[in-house]
Amino acid sequence: MHRVNLVLLILLSFSGLTANTHEVSLDGTLPYLSIQDAINSSSNSDTILVHPGRYFENIDFVGKSITVCSEYVSNPNWDIVESTIIDGNEQSSCVVVINGELNAVLNGFTVTNGIGYGNSRYGGGVYVNFDSNLNLENCLVEDNHAINCGGVLTGQNSLTSITGCVIRNNSSVYIGGGVGVYTGTLNLSLTNLNRIYNNYGDVQDIFIYNSQSTNIVLDTLSVNLTEPDGFFVSYFHEDGLPAPEISVQNNYFDQFDSDLYVSPTGDDSNNGLTPETPLQTIAYANRIIQPDSLNPNTVYLLPGTYSSELNNQFFPIALQSHTKMLGGGDLPDEVIIGSVGEESKIGISNATNVEVGNFTISHANENVEAVLLVSRSCNVFIHDVESINNYSEYPGLLILYSNNIIFNNISINSVDHDLHRISCIKTYECENTIFNNTIINSISNIIEDGSTVLVRFSRSKVSINNMLITNVIIEDTGVVFSYGNSVESNVVGNLELYNFLAYNNTSLSNSMPMFNFSTYHEECYINNMTIAHNTGPTAITRFGGDYTIRNSIIYNPNSAYEMGVWVPADGDPTPNWSNIDIDYSLVRNGLASIPGADNPNNNVLWGVNNIDVNPLFRGDMEGDIPVGDPRWVQLTENSPCVNAGTPDTLGMNLPSIDITGNPRVWDNIIDMGAHEYNPTVDNSYETAPTPPATIQVSHFPNPVTPNGSNDKVAFIEFTLPKKPIEKPTLEIYNIKGQKVRDLKITQSFSQLVRSAGLSTEEKQSGEKYSQMWDCRDNNRKTVATGIYFYKVSSEGEEAIGKMMIMK
After folding, report:
1. How far from 723 is each of 45, 631, 726, CA to CA, in Å?
2. Is residue 124 helix, strand or coil?
3. For residue 541, which of 528, 554, 550, 552 has the smallest C-alpha distance?
């Protein structure tokens, strides 16, 4: 035996850490060739001594309180750590401690190439869970990747103490790239300091959730912090426990207080300060840009395709507070993020004051829960984003526990998935989530087990203008659209729905309605909704709670019935009885066909202006539109829905244009449904033979109340007399004539329809645009109460409108 080993054994025996020592070496001169074999032969308090070499293993402490160490314990030379390697070989976690170990020790190793434990791939390098304790000492944890925490993850009721370690260059799809603790306990040594830096994830370096933690004192962190920032270090506890203080001696890199540019042909050794010297990696640019709450900096993505295969992109792409990430092309399809089989994902977590937009994200694989995730964030503006051919559980948007999240011009297309249930949009416990111009098209989700809710607004306050859902097929039990809150909801909110069109969708469910509306809280409002020519074996719609419905069409001959009103089960402790006020609407087969309406505990106020006749849609009457094109359900001249809407729309805060982009109120009265019939135009997405002579502008609501319970944003809509060569501009001015906001106009709603493959011809005149202003200036600060002017400019022409902001 080598003299150093004899010294080591003497040290270990006197330390009281071991009853027996089991030695491991790759050269065959010692009893064990593998670490796991030695562990399997050991007993509590034993020591596994591992000699230098690369061990391709995924070791499990199998419930034993033992010490696994390298020669570093007797010769504290970092070269020994770097030459004694546990290589997970991309099979599982490198090290798991998940069987109730009370005192496990791992000391003096490089831990690398792990990908996480189990199907959910927890803890790429080291995974500690299920009432287990690990002392991780003097280890280099690097180049591991997982779905949930790339470096070291500690789970429920478990404790990980980290001493003298380097944790770097790890990555994950979710939780922390470097260190994550989820309902467990993390102890970072306050004397033998750790270095945790240059990791990638939703949270880069350290993620702490519902967990106890000592103060974070480090030798090195990616940047110098004094408190969690939500990006490099995040902390959240449901009981409101105070966040740990942070003390850092060194930061790994400096941040730039400037806009940065990224290009697929760039180089991360460039400074990124100009389009001529761009960086290459989006994730890298987003972490070296410096947040600025007074003047947010922007990462500009120059046109091209960004993927790990083509140009070394890292995923996920996360954003810091007080920053922006914008595609630099004219339209979203000029900047493409992701390619086939990648973990393409953009995450906004624990952030405030963020703007992203003008790009396409595609081909995310099934490891990605959500293509675009917003979690525990506020004041986020996401616009002009196309999601195409993504195969994650949420191939569009997942928004959790967030406030003031605004979406404009969102398109989710072409998903055909039979592996797991999907949801294109989901909100949960969110306040003031606003959608303007949203298209969901060509989604197929046929699965044997589980259920699909394609668009799900849960326990949230949601406002929707111009939403189109078409050409969807979902399996039993499946719901196309669901709004619901509950007695337990933390968010006391409601639904406001304008210009909603759902057409040519199929649900194979025998138990669930295709469109489910339920509220236990505030009254919900639905105006100008068309749900038509969908196919389902049960109800098309079901309502529970308080709803006011106006100017809407529910006409689906290929369904069992059109509407149901929820009847709570006997013994329900919180029964949700309904007050449904519906008028100036068309419902096939009328009131008599609505189950639950006759229950004495439900109150259905059926207006005298409702009708139950054939709406005479364009596709039925003229046959000039292919099935699947949303123009199929436009109104024709003799439709009973024309001029049959609410006679007085004052105070309803209705959009000025319909879902096609045509003027909403014609002949001094509104039509039923999402489409407005106008004999002076051809009601198409493509052409308008009599365009306006000048730019026409309007907005709703008026006034706008950014701090109120409703009407928090201004919807600004305008029509151009001709197809513009260059993009129109929209600017906001205060009453002093000072410009407070530039709003980039990328595409009209008809362009969004074309990008979804629902139309092929371009309008040459009469193009309609709808944009939102969140009552914030260019520095993302809410403007003061007062009068504001909005100016639209295009091809040398201008038009000005006026609005009132009341806080």
Report:
1. 78, 21, 9
2. coil
3. 554
Query: Does the reported pTM lie above 0.85?
Result: yes
3-state helix, strand, coil in the chain (%, to 5): 10, 45, 50
The burial class, CB within 10 Å (0-12 / 13-18 / 19+), for 565 is: buried
Distances (CA, A) of 718 to 539, 667, 777: 38, 19, 21
**Rounded distance between C-alpha atoms, residue 276 and residue 333, angstroms:** 22
CA distances from 416 to 419, 420, 422, 472 (A): 10, 11, 10, 10
Q: Kindly tell me the sign of the dihedral angle through the C-alpha atoms of 229, 231, 235, 238.
A: positive
State the chain's maximal CA–CA distance in angstroms. Answer: 100
Contact between residue 298 and residue 325 where contact means Cβ atoms under 8 Å apart: yes
Instruction: Report cis status (omega within 30 of 0) of the bond before 242.
Output: no
Rg value, the chain, Cα: 30
DSSP 14: H
Q: Are 666 and 695 in contact (CB under 8 A)?
A: no
> Is the Cβ–Cβ distance between 113 and 144 less than 8 Å?
yes
**Strand intervals (E) in 99-245:** 104-107, 110-112, 126-128, 133-137, 140-142, 145-148, 152-154, 159-163, 166-168, 171-174, 179-182, 185-188, 194-197, 206-209, 212-213, 216-221, 233-236
Length in residues, the chain: 807
677 contacts 683 by C-beta, under 8 angstroms: yes
pLDDT digits (tens, 9 = 90+) for 595-647: 999 999 999 999 999 999 999 999 999 888 888 888 899 999 999 999 999 98
Whether 490 and 458 have beta carbons less than 8 Å apart is answered as no
Strands (E), 210-363: 212-213, 216-221, 233-236, 246-251, 260-262, 297-301, 304-306, 317-318, 323-327, 335-337, 346-349, 352-362
Q: What angle do CA 458, 462, 465 make, to 5 degrees?
A: 130
- Tell me 657's DSSP state: B
- pLDDT, average across residues 21-34: 95
Task: Please work out, in degrees rounded to the nearest 5, the angle formed at the alpha carbon of residue 724 by the alpha carbons of 718 and 729.
Answer: 55
Distance, CA of 562 to CA of 548 (rounded, Å): 17
